[in-house]
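new request in #modeling-help
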Amino acid sequence: MTAQQDIKADTWTVAGRTFSSRLIVGTGKYKSLEENAAAVEASGAEIVTVAVRRVNISDPTQPRLTDFIDPRAVTYLPNTAGCFTADEAIRTLRLAREAGGWNLVKLEVLGEAKTLYPDMRETLRATEVLVKEGFEPMVYCVDDPIAAKQLEEAGAVAIMPLGAPIGSGLGIQNVVTIRLIVEGAGVPVLVDAGVGTASDAAEAMELGCDGVLMNTAIAEAKDPVLMARAMKAAVEAGRLAYLAGRMRKRRYADPSSPLAGLI
Amino acid sequence: MNVDEAIGIRVNGEARRVAGGMSVAEMVGSLGLDPAKVAVERNREIVPRSLLGEVRVEDGDQFEIVHFVGGG
């Protein structure tokens, strides 16, 4: 098999659905739906996260996300952003399933507004209930290898540890725990939250993650469409570097030119 | 109950008066919304899309009508 074919065949599968792009993008915080759609296009993402909110009944003619990002062309991944209890998250996803008709969802149950850190007790409880109801939850979680295992045992179809707090753009704070989660997981692992720029996304992929999920890093860039392109390239570069297998690190220099034949 | 009588319901937290006897699909349509593009919860129970045309709106019902919006 040539390298070209290798790259082409490099897909990943979550809950029986296979994707080529390893970049999942959010659809929040954009200046306009047009800009949002252009950024999704530039990112090459095949999955976008969406929120479930009340319809504005005083102005039902407002433009809709679905008019700009076609749910038949891109997989909508409904999320539970803003939910602080398992019950709220479950209620939201039941509505999402009714609105969209699919079981693949993103679960996040937050612990507090300041850090938006996940509440793992509620997250685990929600995962168990959702799985019983036939959902396939991709679960946002802390970067804790034990918590990740527990979620997988509860039926999470993907483990999505934070790299840093949501919207912080601080990059991956604990490469050790992310790597341990990747090594221990039998389901896809995606870094979700904390990516600030392209090198952060590449780092997640170099650690062996199956993908990266981001929103703010693209939406709050000065040029979101250009950053979406950068993230696409970074995820691909990081993935290729992971597959290629990096050189070992040395404490000191090692010359690149032969020492033999020096004049 | 007289079907022409107006009844009081709440939709997304707002009080509304609607004609009695209408289906949930008709109520959603009367708000200018396409029932195929939203999900409806009635008194905290999902109304499956297949039943939107059958379930009747009753006095005091509380509805949540949601759809997908941009989000992380």
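bot summary: Chain A touches chain B at residues 26-30, 33, 36, 49-55, 57-58, 60-61, 64-66, 71, 76, 78-79, 81, 91, 94-100, 166-167, 193, 215-216 (CB under 8 Å).
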